[in-house]
Design goal:
This protein has 177 residues and is α/β, with parallel strands linked by helices. The chain has 7 helices and 5 strands, in the order αβαβαβαβαβαα. Helices cover 42% and strands 16% of the residues. It is globular and about 45 Å long. The N and C termini lie far apart (36 Å).
């Protein structure tokens, strides 16, 4: 398999756009990690960015905590950087030098919603979207359920990277298997 990091790809890599992976990531889970890993293998440069809307509740983890958990979860992905943004994802993508949004989709319902958003992002912000399908054990994971289960002390360790599980344990007192 030819990967973006392969020296034989230098001409192709130079032509590949930078990818921007936006999300709330509250918490960052194995499905998110799979999308970031796929983007990392396909693109020379990837920016994972935590979106924050001051008008909405902050969620379980602060933006700073989410950034730290993601950074600890992507160790070894040298072409990935982690940032935060407020406002429109298309504006943040352009500011980061990215030409393309990368979004994960779990089901047809996700795809229906994401297609509308992708069209809107292209028409209003001029940024295209690429979808990465969820596969395997990471395919059907949703942050809102992880917050609910983990927040009540349930074991979500098989669904999140180790740094996220440790942060969840510190925050909630959850116990693992």
């Amino acid at each position: 398999m030819l990967r973006a990091s392969d020296s034989r790809c230098t001409t192709l890599i130079d032509a590949m756009p930078a990818a921007f992976v936006p999300g709330s990531f509250d918490p960052f889970h194995n499905g998110h990690l799979a999308v970031v890993r796929a983007a990392s293998e396909a693109f020379a440069s990837v920016v994972v960015s935590v979106g924050h809307n001051r008008a909405k509740p902050s969620g379980m983890f602060t933006v700073e905590e989410r950034l730290q958990m993601i950074e600890e979860s992507i160790v070894g992905m040298e072409n990935v950087q982690v940032t935060a943004f407020e406002g429109l994802a298309t504006d943040a993508a352009r500011e980061a030098g990215a030409d393309l949004l990368v979004k994960g989709v779990r089901t047809g319902t996700d795809l229906d919603s994401e297609m509308v958003q992708a069209n809107t992002n292209l028409e209003t912000g001029g940024v295209r979207t690429m979808f990465v399908p969820g596969v395997g054990t990471a395919a059907l994971v949703a942050s809102r359920y992880l917050r609910e289960i983990g927040g009540r002390g349930g074991d979500i360790s098989s669904l999140v990277p180790d740094p996220v599980w440790r942060a969840m344990q510190r925050k909630t007192g959850a116990q693992g298997q």
